[in-house]
Amino acid sequence: MAMLREHLLPWANDLFDGEEWCFQQDTAPAHKANETQEFLSEECPDFITKAEWPPYSPDLNPMDYSVWSILEAKACAKPHKTIESESFVEGMG
């Protein structure tokens, strides 16, 4: 836990400067330890648990988790009558 507490958290807090962030890891045995999972769920704003992480996914990409929530937030920031609405197209640019 010392590595995470002393290095990960200060780095992430400095880098993201108050913005919410998500910690993503693989399922290496040390990463799946209950103590590690507990620490990350308590200390990180968002965390992909070992139960949520698909097994044997060498092609899993962080973008799979973050891009859809960002797209949804931008697309749903204002109500739209149609997909082609001007505000939707402007919001995507």
Concise overview:
The chain is mainly alpha-helical and 93 residues long.
Taking pLDDT < 50 over at least 5 consecutive residues as the criterion, the unreliable ranges are none
The largest sheet is: 2 strands, parallel
Number of domains: 2
**Strand order in the sheet with the most strands:** 1-2
Number of strands: 2
Estimate the global geometry from the Cα principal axes. elongated
Rg (CA only): 17 Å
Helix fraction, binned, reads 40-55%
Q: How are helices and strands ordered from N to C? A: HEHHEHH
- Straight-line distance between termini: 41 Å
Mean pLDDT: 77
Structural class: mainly alpha
Instruction: Tally the helices.
Output: 5
How much of the sequence lies in strands comes to under 5%
Domain Tc1-like transposase DDE: 20-83
Pfam families: DDE_3
Protein name: Tc1-like transposase DDE domain-containing protein
GO molecular function: nucleic acid binding
